[in-house]
Amino acid sequence: MPTDALSREDPYTVDTTWWHELPDGRIQCDVCPRACKLREGQRGLCFVRGRVDDRVVLASYGRSSGFCVDPVEKKPLNHFLPGTPVLSFGTAGCNLACRFCQNWDISKSREIDTLASAASPDALARAATKTGCRSVAFTYNDPTIFIEYAMDVADACRASGVRSIAVSAGYINAEPRAEFYAHMDAANIDLKAFSEEFYEKITFAKLGAVQDTLKYLVHETDVWTEVTTLLIPGHNDSEAEIAAECAWFAEHLGPDVPLHFSAFHPDFKMRDIPRTPPQTLRRARRVAREHGLRYVYTGNVHDPEGQTTSCPGCAAPVVERDWYVLNRYELTDRGDCVHCGTTVAGVFDGPAGDWGAKRRPLRLIEQPGTRGAHDRRKAPR
Ligand code: SF4
C-alpha cells in the first residue's frame, strides 16, 4: 500500500469512525469489504483513507476533482426528475481496481492536484441552487470512500430542497451503507458483471457484496435505484451471463427497477478490447425484457428504441430520448401515462425539465475550513 504522508493538520483531513483495532496492532478500516489493515502512516487501497495518529482519517474532505452541471440522464437515471440538471462532482481514488475503468484519471489518481477545487457542503448546496440544479450527484469516483463528505453535502443540499444522487459500485459494508443511504434520494449502482470470477479478476471485488447492496436499496430504503451494466466484449457479454443477471434481477429486485446496458470504450488497462457493438446492447435489452423487466435501456450509443420508456399499462411510448435529450414526454407531473393513467415507476415531481444534453463546467473557489456534521476532526493543534 502507498505510504504518502498523511497529516491531521491538513485542512482537508478529517477523523472517521468506521474502523477498529486488531490484536496485531494494525487498524482495520470498516467502510468497505476491502477491509484494509493499516499500520501507522499507511493508506488504504482507495488512497484517500489512511491511518495517522492511531486512527483512520479521510484526506479528501471538502475538496473535489471538479464540478459540472449536466443532465440527470447522464448518471444514468431515466426515472428520477427527468430532463433536469444535476451538479456533478467527485474527489479522487476508488475502492475497486477495475482494469477497464472509464474514469481512471480520477479514480486512480495519486496526485493531490486532482483535488484542486475546494468546496464546503454549504458552498456546494449554494452552487446547486444558484445553477438551478434539482440534485447533486457524487459521480466521478465512488462516494463510498468519501462518505463523511458526501453525507454532509447531502444534508446541506436537503436543507435547500436539493436532492442527492450516489453513483456507486455498491461495494460497502452494511453499517456505513445504512447511514450513507439515509442521506441519499437516488442511486445508480454498477452491476459490473454476473460472475464472481469477473469481479475477482477484473475489479478485485466481490459480486455478493454488490448484490446485497442492491437488495438493501430496493427493499429496505426509499432511495430511487437504477442499475448499470457496462458490457465489455468477450468478458461479460455472453447471452448466458446476461440471462443469469436478468433472472436474478427479476427475482430479487423486481420488474420496476430500471436496468441500463451501456457500451464500453477501450480505456485504462483494457485498451486492447474493442468498443461494444450496438447489437450486443440491443440483444442484452431483448433478453432483459424477455425476463419481464419493464424498463431496460441501452447507453453510450444512438439507439432511440433502446432509450424509450414504454407505458407498462398500454405499451405507448411515453418518454423518448436521444442520448440525454427528451424528444417525447407523455407523463403527468406525477409520472402517470397520459393515455391510460398507469403509473410509471420513478420519482416525478412536476413537468419534465428541458436541460437537454448541455454540459457546463463550474469553478468554485473557496478556502478550506468550513465543516459539516460528519467532520469529526479535532481543532488543529
Ligand atoms: S474504504 Fe478505502 S481504506 Fe477503507 S476498506 Fe475500503 S479501500 Fe480500504
UniProtKB/TrEMBL annotation:
Pfam family, one: Radical_SAM
Cofactor: [4Fe-4S] cluster
Keywords: 4Fe-4S, Iron, Iron-sulfur, Metal-binding, S-adenosyl-L-methionine
Coiled coil: none
InterPro entries found in the cross-reference section: Aldolase_TIM (IPR013785), AmmeMemoSam_rS (IPR027596), Organic_radical-activating (IPR034457), rSAM (IPR007197), rSAM_sf (IPR058240)
Domain Radical SAM core as annotated: residue spans: 79-294
Segments of this protein annotated with the region Disordered: 359-381
Protein name: AmmeMemoRadiSam system radical SAM enzyme
Taxonomic classification: Bacteria, Bacillati, Actinomycetota, Actinomycetes, Micromonosporales
Gene name, Swiss-Prot/TrEMBL: pflA
